[in-house]
Amino acid sequence: MQTNTLYNSSATQPDNCINIQSSIASDDCHTVGNTSVKNPRMNCRNVDVFYADKQAINQVTLDIGRNEVIAMIGPSGCGKSTFLRCLNRMNDTIDSCRISGEILLDGQNIYDKRQDVVPLRAQVGMVFQKPNPFPKSIYENVAYGPRIHGLTSTKSDLDIIVESSLNRAGLWDEVKDRLNQPGTGLSGGQQQRLCIARTIAVGPEVILMDEPCSALDPIATAKIEELIDELHEEYTIVIVTHSMQQAARVSQRTAYFHLGNLIEVGETNQIFSNPRHKLTEDYITGRFG
Amino acid sequence: MSNKIDNEVLSASPNKSMQRVQASLARRYAKERRFRRMGISAVITGLLFLSLLFGSIISNGYTAFWQTYIQIEVHFDAEMLDPQGQRSPEALSAANYGGLVKRSLRQMFPQVKKRSDKRKLYHLVSSGAAFQLREMVMNNPQLIGSTALIWVAADDDVDMLMKGHINRHKPEADRRMKDQQISWVDELLQQGRIEQRFNTTFFTAGDSREPELAGIRGAVMGSIFTLLITLALSLPIGVAAALYLEEFAPTNRLTDLIEVNINNLAAVPSIVFGLLGLAVFIGFFGMPRSVPIVGGLVLTLMTLPTIIIASRAALKSVPPSIREAALGIGASRMQTVFHHVLPQALPGMLTGTIIGMAQALGETAPLLMIGMVAFIVDIPGNVMDPSTALPVQIYLWADSPERAFAERTSAAIMVLLAFLITMNTLAVLLRKKFERRW
Ligand SMILES: Nc1ncnc2c1ncn2[C@@H]1O[C@H](COP(=O)(O)OP(=O)(O)OP(=O)(O)O)[C@@H](O)[C@H]1O
Ligand SMILES: [Mg+2]
Question: What Cα–Cα distance (Å) separates residue B33 from each residue in A179, B21, B28, B45?
Fold first, then answer.
């Protein structure tokens, strides 16, 4: 395990950071704070991500604990989504995207050649920034995952999964009378909750959420936050958010990204009350961007 | 820079900015109106040409759906048909039915005595009359010995006279119908022995040298067999190729090269595909000439690029977020494609396919190359029987000198257009049906 002192002694390290705005006092892009946790669910070590020749993530090392909610914050374009998509190999679908470093799930390198992405994505589910329900019925949207993974053998079991998933996503009462209507006919916020229901229907261990509430009203947002609170008893949740209040409300740890670098990570309370890095402080006090 | 100045001007006097908006408004609307007028006139011009085309074809061809028939009184003479009295099918089929027809005509016009006049008289009815009598006798040998009134097809010249395409006032030497023949026709008309009826022969017969016996059934069947082969091959191959290239293949030099070549193939003149088919299927594989299976193979080569390009465009238009959604909950690529992408892309693919099929239906040049231009009387019963296709039949008839073939050419074009319109309507309906699902 590397210590903070080592990280901070930038003089001893070759400066391979990608350009940071020089006006900001610190030109140190090495992570501040403790990146590791005890008994982690996922470990990311020295992750680099390139889109063609453009580097989007630079040497990110971060552990994700069991049953924790970790929030990722940072200015737009800093690579939060990119990093999130590395965690279930969604970046594989982008031809120009190359990843190096190691990402372990329960000690198993998910970028190993023998790793099958299908079970990986069933284990590490994802909710996207823009709601993207299938152009099928509401029922089919939720039932699709359990069906392809063969989670149930009978229709009644499937019905139970669909109902409980919709319930947990706070959508059941609104749609229980129109399960056969198209999912694309719902409002934006309902669609996003449908997508959350679809993800949890598969029963993943880790749920990646990319700004799940950006299209939701405060009431629906509160519902999702409640859901996150409830889910983290069993699941590990990585959530990207632009709302610092939300990060403060739902997460135990927070990671701050800036231009592809993981600048600071720590207990959420500490990050918001007492940021150690100048960039973090600027961002959360609203002085940045 | 200029922005800044504008801003100063605007912020200085909000009224003035409103004035500017008002002033520009008129110009903007005028522009829009101009554009609309241009669009409407383009559409009208198109419709005008279309109605011109349809008008000329229909006015030329509608008469082909009627045919003149002449009633003759036939005595099925046992002496003449079956002198041995065996009633064996061989004897009956070889008997001289033409003689029966001629005898009836002579009896109807006993005043005709000269040999050359008799020949003119015989010319009034179609040579198909003898076949008609033979078929009647073969089906019902009991007819022998009896006398019956029978409607037989008139010769195409009589037909043309009845339809007004032969001018009686021209000098006799310039017309195909001589004065004498015209007087006979008039006499028959007075007796009510000439009638125009719906031309079923046109829809039930194969090609013939005699216009009144010629039909498009053979060509239609040939076209149907050819298109069935084309559809059965090009749809699965085209869709599979598009799916692979769009969803599975890595993007590299090779796939770029393939893409460029597919686009090139789409622009290759169809006659080249005909030559290719001639060389490969007939020359190398030794398949027979003039058969729909080779026609179908050649048209498959020609249609594939169209279908692949349309299918790829349809796949491209499926939003990537659908793929991500499916992949994100652990669907395999195959499941993603077949459960979510393909159903979304299907309407576009079907539209492309039907457009490709419509092109194939109208294609003539490659079929000429592989011998589907032969004169074939028999109606093909399967994909290995020699046949022609509709556009080739049109080409063949358009080349014939008889006036009666001219109207049949137009009629055949109408049939082809009817098929095309049906197919294109189908394309629209299919798309509507699939799109309306959600
Ligand atoms: N498919 C792609 N191809 C090329 N570059 C990309 C691609 N996706 C993202 N990038 C680039 O990578 C960088 C990080 O993008 P990313 O989407 O991860 O940002 P983000 O932190 O999620 O921003 P936001 O908060 O706006 O969602 C950006 O500079 C972006 O331009
Ligand atoms: Mg993002």
Answer: 47, 18, 9, 18
Of A166, A168, A118, A174, the C-alpha closest to A142 is A166
Put simply, the answer to whether B327 touches A148 (Cβ < 8 Å) is: no
**How is residue B333 written in tokens?**
């690529």
Domain boundary among B62, B93, B113: B62
The DSSP bridge partners found for residue A77 are none
Task: With a cut of 70, say whether residue B350 has pLDDT above it.
Answer: yes
CB contact under 8 A, A199 and B329: yes
**Number of CB pairs, chain A paired with chain B, less than 8 A apart:** 67
Closest chain A C-alpha to B329 CA, distance in angstroms = 6
- Give the closest residue to A172 by CA, choosing from A211, A153, A204, A200: A200
B43 and B29 housed in the same domain = yes
Averaged pLDDT, A167-190: 89
Reported residue count of chain A is 289
Choose the final residue of a domain: B37, B62, B87.
B62
C-alpha B90 chain-centroid distance:
39
The answer to whether B274 and B369 have CB atoms below 8 angstroms apart is: yes
For residue B354 the two structure tokens come to 């039907």
Q: How far is CA B185 from CA A70, B148, B188, in A?
A: 101, 21, 5
> What whole-number distance in Å separates Cα of residue B55 and Cα of residue B52?
5
Reduce the DSSP state of residue A62 to 3 states and report it.
strand
Provide the domain count of chain B: 3
Is the CB of A198 less than 8 angstroms away from the CB of B329? yes
Residues A223, A221: Cα–Cα separation, whole Å? 5
Q: Name A215's Cβ contacts closer than 8 Å, sequence gap at least 6.
A: A130, A131, A188, A189, A191, A192
pLDDT of A1 reads 38
Interface of A with B (CB under 8 A): 88, 90, 93, 95, 118-122, 125-126, 128, 130, 132-136, 144-145, 148-149, 182, 184-185, 195, 198-199, 202
Minimum-distance CB partner of B329 among A130, A185, A202:
A202
**Does B244 share its domain with B348?**
yes
Structural domain harbouring B412: 217-434
Q: Can you tell me the distance from the alpha carbon of B98 to that of B351, in angstroms, rounded to the nearest whole number?
A: 53
pTM of the predicted model as reported, rounded to 2 decimal places = 0.82
Query: CA-CA distance, A247 to A239, in Å (whole number)?
Result: 8
- pLDDT greater at residue B42 or residue B14: B42
Are B356 and B230 in the same domain?
Answer: yes
First to last CA, chain B: 50
Complex ipTM, two decimals?
A: 0.84
Kindly state if the Cβ of A50 falls inside 6 Å of ligand 1: no
* B95 pLDDT higher than 80: yes
> By C-alpha distance, which of B288, B283, B277 is closest to B233?
B277
Whether the CA torsion A23, A27, A29, A34 is positive or negative: it is negative
Between B250, B324, B344, which is nearest A128 by CB?
B324
Cα distance between residue B106 and residue B298, in whole Å: 53
pLDDT in tens, B299-320: 999 999 999 999 999 999 999 9
Q: Write the burial class of residue B399 (CB in 10 Å: 0-12 exposed, 13-18 middle, 19+ buried).
A: exposed
Pick among B247, B251, B252, B329 to test the A interface (most A CBs inside 10 A): B329
User: Which tokens go with A49?
Assistant: 């991500």
